Amino acid sequence: MWTDSHCHLDAPEFGADGGSIAQRAAQLGVGWIVIPAVATANFAAVAALAHRQSNCAYALGIHPIFVPQAQESDLAVLRQSVAAAMADSRLVAIGEIGLDFFVPELKAAAMAEKQTHFYREQLKIARDFGLPVLLHARRAQDLILKQLRAISVPGGIAHAFNGSLQQAQAFIDLGFKLGFGGALTFPRALQLRRLAANLPLEAIVLETDAPDMAPVWLHPARNSPQQLPRIGQLLAELRGQAASDVARITSANVLAVLPRLAHLAGAAHLPESL
Ligand SMILES: [Zn+2]
């Protein structure tokens, strides 16, 4: 069984097909799909999708790329939505949150400050509710880590990880797993491949980030969670391990770092290695 720890199944690119795509992914062995929110406007959509599909769970948060349009009041909306959803077993994390200093319009001083404010305030919400976080970090690994050291949350996932070995270790030390996906499939991604091959498997989770981050065999077409087994197979080849071990351990890693998903999945399904 594979686990897609990060998939935007409610994205407009999927139209109304998110549900059937989740079902087809399940037939290919994708046992769980975690759907992060990106703005208050899609909180209801991600929750509804996770409720319609037996293999889906969701997270609530404001993505850094949506911070320019976000209002201060959206943070209160997030806090209220999370408070209301704590009784909902399908809510498993706060996300997608973080910092993006790759997108030019997000780098200007005022916007960098607004991003940092939204990131910090959302970490506080995660801390207050005891929820793990799904992190987006582009050109911002050290700043992401700096805030994690200041506002302590119960771990989570550094999604689409693309930092150094030292930064990877810093996330691991803070209770995080590192998310790898389609970027691995590009033969020229030498540094990323080396990292994914050499990190302990216990530190790695798989993700598609669909509809984005299409693997090389689809690029630039729309990505989907159905690609996860093939991406996982490639990781297994890079590591010289059996695909079945990579599937089992990376899935267990997601459950280890998202305890509410583990609860949803049922403790009986946890492998003995945990
Ligand atoms: Zn994402």
Question: Concise description?
Answer:
This protein is of the alpha/beta class. It is built from eleven helices and eight strands. The two termini are 16 Å apart.
Using brief descriptors, characterize the structure shown.
274 residues; alpha/beta; eight-stranded parallel sheet; 8 strands; 16% strand; binds zinc ion
Structural features, described:
By secondary structure, this protein is of the alpha/beta class. Helix content is 44%, strand content 16%. The chain is built from 11 helices and 8 strands. It has helices at residues 18-27, 43-52, 72-85, 104-107, 109-129, 141-150, 165-173, 190-198, 228-239, 243-257, 259-265; strands at 2-4, 30-36, 56-60, 91-100, 133-138, 156-159, 176-180, 204-206. An 8-stranded parallel sheet has the order 1-2-3-4-5-6-7-8. Strand 1, helix 1 (18-27) and strand 2 (30-36) form a beta-alpha-beta unit. The protein is globular, with a radius of gyration of 17 Å.
